[in-house]
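Support request from a user on the community tier.

User writes: "When I paste my structure tokens into the form, the page sometimes reloads and wipes my input. The last time it worked, I copied everything first. Here is what I submitted, just in case something in the input itself triggers the reload:"
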């Protein structure tokens, strides 16, 4: 039989330990037995070694993937950071009645209190489907618009330990009069003060009331993992109680006496790492997750004050005696920092990767050492100019201002990269931990656009034009929204 054109004979080579069946060339035979064995060894182990190399590369990729997944999981707990995006964002739905910034995502349902400040109507608590904006349920909260509060208690979607929403519901109000208010006449009613309230525990998927319990009008609520914490005016001081809202049982209660002659107040609480920062009257307390007192301070000043957290520290902000700016005091160390006039701590997203450092912004950006009070570095000029948005991520500081996006080393202020976007304002920044999202308007466009830049070099990843001119990007419960100057919110995803 004649061979088919294009086909060649295939010679099989036996690399085994048996007799050679012609697989070695005459040259190989002339090299001697040792050379023949060496060639057979190389042929025998060529593919296993290649397999080991491939396995090592795959293993390295798996390790890197797991490391990235762990990093993103950690960032999921940082307020103001988006859930990871799959790609270019698009407009999902629009609302003029939105509960930002107090929404929570409980099982794919966005829940929170909404306020119609134009009609000055009673507030509502609503549940909407996160992807479509469809309202699933609503319930009136009563009281003053902006005065009600709902907080989540984390948990699974269903079951005895399910996630729930805890709301203050106003049952009765009285007219409150502010004498001597500008433009008012004596006896003019300016707002409605709650006189009787209760707590309602809701199923976030349906709005069904699971239980109710008493509360006082001045009580304050804050989410605390699977529970909630309530501060209230107790006997001669402030009571801080950690509650399981599903059962109404107190996990613990911590009592803090008021100073002699001072008005007893319910207090204000925010989370501080695994614990709580509580302030009432002239004092503040730092509590552990089990209610134990970690530290306390006298915080009141004659010219007014506020507390905030930065670099893992608790600081007090007060106006300087000459009213030229702020004086910042670390409550733990007593270190004082006086930023230049016009500068203040910026409330940008902070993943905690720069402990012991305070960042201030104004006409420029500066980093301050909270251990010494000394300025570590300051950046001014076109690259950082007036900062319209900034945040700290993985030890770097990302800023936008005057159409320039910069990445700076958080420890030294050294420029890592700078990109001139060509966009006009308003500007804003957001991140999902993998990309930098920049809001601005392209040349010749009356609407805004969102651009994604690579965190490592500022390289453009994608561009998403929007159908409205936007003022800001807002991140709540891991979701991205853009806000117009009329107060309309557009959900992006």
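"...and here is what came back when it finally went through:"
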């Amino acid at each position: 039989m004649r061979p088919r054109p294009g086909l060649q004979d295939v010679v099989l080579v036996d690399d085994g330990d048996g007799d050679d069946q012609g697989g070695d060339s005459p040259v190989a035979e002339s090299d001697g037995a040792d050379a023949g064995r060496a060639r057979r060894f190389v042929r025998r182990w060529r593919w296993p070694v290649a397999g080991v190399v491939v396995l090592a590369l795959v293993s390295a990729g798996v390790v890197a993937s797991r490391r990235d997944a762990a990093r993103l999981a950690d960032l999921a707990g940082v307020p103001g950071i988006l859930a990871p995006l799959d790609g270019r964002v698009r407009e999902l739905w629009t609302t003029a009645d939105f509960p930002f910034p107090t929404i929570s995502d409980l099982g794919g349902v966005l829940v929170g209190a909404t306020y119609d400040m134009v009609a000055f109507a009673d507030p509502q608590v609503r549940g909407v489907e996160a992807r479509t904006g469809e309202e699933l349920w609503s319930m009136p909260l009563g009281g003053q618009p902006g005065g009600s509060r709902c907080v989540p208690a984390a948990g699974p979607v269903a079951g005895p330990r399910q996630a729930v929403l805890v709301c203050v519901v106003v049952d009765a109000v009285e007219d409150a009069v502010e004498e001597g208010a500008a433009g008012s006449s004596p006896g003019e009613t300016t707002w409605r003060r709650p006189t009787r309230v209760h707590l309602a525990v809701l199923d976030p998927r349906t709005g069904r009331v699971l239980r109710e319990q008493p509360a006082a009008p001045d009580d304050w609520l804050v989410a605390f993992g699977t529970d909630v914490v309530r501060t209230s005016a107790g006997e001669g001081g402030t009571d801080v109680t950690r509650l399981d809202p599903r059962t109404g049982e107190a996990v613990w209660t911590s009592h803090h006496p008021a100073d002699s002659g001072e008005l007893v107040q319910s207090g204000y609480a925010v989370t501080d790492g695994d614990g709580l920062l509580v302030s009432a009257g002239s004092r503040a307390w730092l509590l552990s997750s089990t209610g134990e007192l970690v530290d306390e301070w006298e915080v009141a000043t004659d010219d007014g004050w506020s507390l905030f957290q930065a670099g893992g520290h608790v600081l007090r902000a007060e106006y300087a005696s000459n009213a030229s700016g702020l004086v910042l005091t670390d409550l733990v160390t007593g270190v004082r920092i006086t930023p230049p006039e016009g500068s203040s701590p910026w409330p940008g997203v902070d993943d905690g990767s720069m402990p012991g450092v305070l960042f201030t912004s104004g006409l420029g950006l500066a980093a301050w050492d909270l251990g010494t009070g000394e300025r570590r570095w300051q950046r001014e000029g076109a690259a950082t100019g007036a900062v319209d948005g900034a945040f700290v991520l993985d030890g770097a500081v990302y800023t936008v201002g005057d159409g320039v996006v910069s990445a700076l080393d958080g420890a030294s202020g050294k420029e890592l990269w700078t990109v001139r976007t060509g966009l006009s304002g308003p500007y804003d920044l957001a991140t999902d931990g993998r990309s930098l999202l920049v809001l601005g308007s392209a040349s010749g466009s009356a609407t805004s656009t969102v651009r994604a830049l690579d965190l490592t070099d500022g390289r453009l990843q994608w561009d998403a034009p929007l159908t409205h001119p936007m003022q800001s990007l807002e991140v709540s419960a891991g979701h991205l929204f853009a806000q117009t100057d009329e107060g309309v919110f557009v959900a992006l995803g």
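Agent notes: The reload is a front-end session timeout and is unrelated to the input. Residues 33-75 form the longest helix (43 residues). Confidence is low (pLDDT under 50) at residues 1-31, 180-184. Escalated to web team.
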